[in-house]
Each structure stands twice: as C-alpha cells, then as structure tokens.
Amino acid sequence: MTQTLEIGINEGERERNRHNALGVVNELHPRFDELRERGDVHRGNMAELFGVASSGPSLLMRRSDSHFTVLGYETADAAFRRHEVFSSRVYEETVMTWGPNLLSMDEPEHRRYRMLAQPAFANKTMQDWESRWLVPILDRLIEGLAHAERADLYMGYCALFPAHTICSSFGIGESDVAPMHDWLLRMLNTSDPEDAARAGRSFAEYMGRVVRERRADPNDDVISLLANSELVDEDGSRHQLTDDEIMGFAGLMLTAGSGTTYRSLGIMLLTLLQRPALLEKVVSDRSLVPQVIEETLRWDPPLTYFSRLATRDTELDGVPMPKGTVVDLSVTAANHDPRRWEDPHEFDPFRPTQPHMGFGSGPHFCIGNQLARMELRVALNRLLDAFPRMQLDPEAPEPFVTGLYFRMPTAVPVILNP
Ligand code: HEM
Fold this sequence. Notes:
The structure is a single chain. By secondary structure, the chain is α+β, with helices and mostly antiparallel strands. 47% of the residues lie in helices and 11% in strands. The protein has 18 helices and 14 strands. The strands form five sheets. Strands 1-2-10-7-3 form a five-stranded mixed beta sheet. The protein has a three-stranded antiparallel beta sheet with strand order 4-14-11. Strand 8 and strand 9 (319-321) form a beta hairpin. The radius of gyration is 21 Å and the shape is globular.
C-alpha cells in the first residue's frame, strides 16, 4: 500500500465503524412503521424508541427531559422550516468546539454567514475540484487495487478520498490530511476531554497558520475566500471574518465533508452488488448513475436524524411540547413515509423523482450537497470503468448495512475481476 491509501480514516473512525457494525440496530423500518402508524411524533429519543443503550454521536446528541422524535415526512419538513420555533442552537453545546459555525446559527445570522461560503460550492468550482483533487486520488486508489483479486471496497476505496478532496480544497497539503482528519475526529471525542482539547489546539495552530498565510497571499482555496470575505453585520456595517469565525467554518466543513459521503458510497456499492441485474444495467448505461445516487440518499441516508430545540411552548402535528424540548427529526423515517413513496422500502432508482430528505430541509439544507453528489457520481463511475464485472465475494462474511445514528455497510467485499 502506498501512503496515499492510508489517508482519510484513523483508528478512532475504524473503531466507530467496528462498534456500529456490531449489529446494534440493522433494520430500522419495522420499528419506524409500527410507530408511524400511531402518529408522526413520539416521546423519547432514538435509543429509547429502539430500546437500546444510547451510545450516539456526541456531535449531534443533545439531551433534554422533554425529548421527541419525528417520523413523518410532512411533519419533519415543517419543523425544519419553522426555524424560528425549532432552533439550531441545539448544536451550540457540541459543535462550538470548532468556533462559531453555520450549523448552530439561527436566522438571520445564519443566512449572512452562509452566503459567504456558498460561492465555494458553486457548479463551476465543483468541476474544478473534480479534475484537480478528486480524479487524481481516485486514479491512485484504483491503481492500488488493480492487481488485487479481492478487496473490501468500503475501507479500501470509499473511506479514502472524501477527506482528501475537502482538505485539498481548503489548502491543506497532502501530507497533512491524515493528521488533520485525526484532530477533527478527536476534537469531538467527549469521553476524553483532555485529548479533545489537545487535538483542538493542534487544529487551531495549523489552521491559524494557513489563515495568516492566505490573508497575506491569497490563492483560490476556500480559506482564501473566507479570509478575504467581509461579513455584513446586522446594523449594516462590515467586518472581515475573524480567525475564530474562519476556524468555525473550516471545522464544520472539513468534518461534514470527510465523514458522510464515504458511508453513502459504501451503502450504494453494497446495494448495487446485492442486485446484480441492476448493477449490470448501471454498468452499461451510466445515465442511470444520478438516479441510483438519489435513491441511495433517500433509501438509507448516512445520518439518520438531526435535532432542533423548541424556543417556546409549541406543538407539532398536534402534540404539545414545552419550551426547551429537543426534537429529533428522523430523515431516514421521513424518507420511507408511505404517504409520500409507494413501496418505500424497495430500492427502486426508477421511481418517480421527488425531493427526499437525505440532505435535510429548510435553511440548513446541506451546503455540500453538490460536492457529495459529484463525489458519489465520479467515484462510482471510475470504479465501474475499472472493474465492470466485479461481484460480491461469496467467501466473505455476509455484509449488511447497520447503525442507529450513522448508517454504513459492515464491509463491501468484492472479487474485482471474476
Ligand atoms: C452524502 C453526503 C452528505 C449528506 C447525506 C449530508 C447531509 C446533511 C444534512 C441532512 C444537513 C442538515 C443538518 C441540519 O439541518 O441540522 C447537512 C448540513 C451541512 N452539510 Fe452536509 N451532508 C453530506 C455531505 C456534505 C459534504 C461533502 C459537505 C462539505 C462541505 C457538507 C457540509 C455541510 C454543512 C457545512 C452543513 C451545514 C449547513 C448549514 O447549517 O447551513 N455535507 N448535511
């Protein structure tokens, strides 16, 4: 293995994957269906609804004595959009570790910050990132696999490039991607606050240096864009983003950009490999790839829910909830609401297209959606070009998709050139 093949995932992340792969909860939908028949809004968090010990992601997990989970599409969509009542400040205690950032801001502040970052994810920029950062790393990964008979594509392909792409676009040199990814993961480790603080200092020191360099000598990376942007304040005055504000953007985007897409690619590959007739169609007709991507994001999104905090006494679908209630909006359950999709549990890329909730909804709709879609499309196409006849390895333990909070395949074991 070359050094490149080691980037993008560290031992902590491997451990989280191993833990999630213990079969904690594999099948979510029988329980969701049973509950949804009784109503869209249920008292309790995901762990309580599934009757399992909670070991959810510290990043997104906020606790409250009053806690509800929403399972219906229309009801979840309404809560995502009623941002003045269902606030994103719910994340404040957890994601502030990076500095002030979009995810935990409410309107109108959120909109002012988001507009600064939006140009970094424009269509033209995505084309540039595709040829500059994504294709070269994918080619190197495929080259590394070319002579192997068998491989686990989840750890040996999917997990190894998204961190590289997003870090490169932020001006982080190739040899620094692995330490950067390691710091980002450790910063969110609430079980060892001292280690989290150490990682936070390393992150701040490194990014602080990049910010100083780009303020003095800007180029076309995202840090240069942010370092030289002016934020219009509420009173109409303007200020250059502070170092803290840039760190907040960087921490959020580097974490979101390196921790989601690879899970979706793993789920998509496994789902196709488990359906050889569909895989064959996709290999010979690549115009189907975008439909397969959208169906994957509907069918099994990599994160199952996002939370909000009630800013006043309110109700949702007729269920009263006091100020301070935490509401978990299950995008996975919403994406299988039988009132919106026929046969929702079928993986059917040919179903009529309509928006799903894999990227959320409302003002916080995923800013990286075009990047994620581009990465999924290019990574799937390059793999199918290189190994058009690949099939599931019948000798490997049977793989499956698992996880209550993060969804991922246990593995994607293949014979590459049968
Ligand atoms: C398959 C991959 C991905 C999925 C399923 C996904 C999903 C989501 C969802 C559901 C949200 C909304 C969170 C909320 O409302 O609380 C979100 C927000 C966000 N995502 Fe993604 N994401 C993906 C990839 C990416 C990538 C590659 C980036 C790279 C920058 C990214 C950056 C962000 C950011 C910065 C936000 C916060 C936006 C805001 O608060 O305005 N995501 N994502």
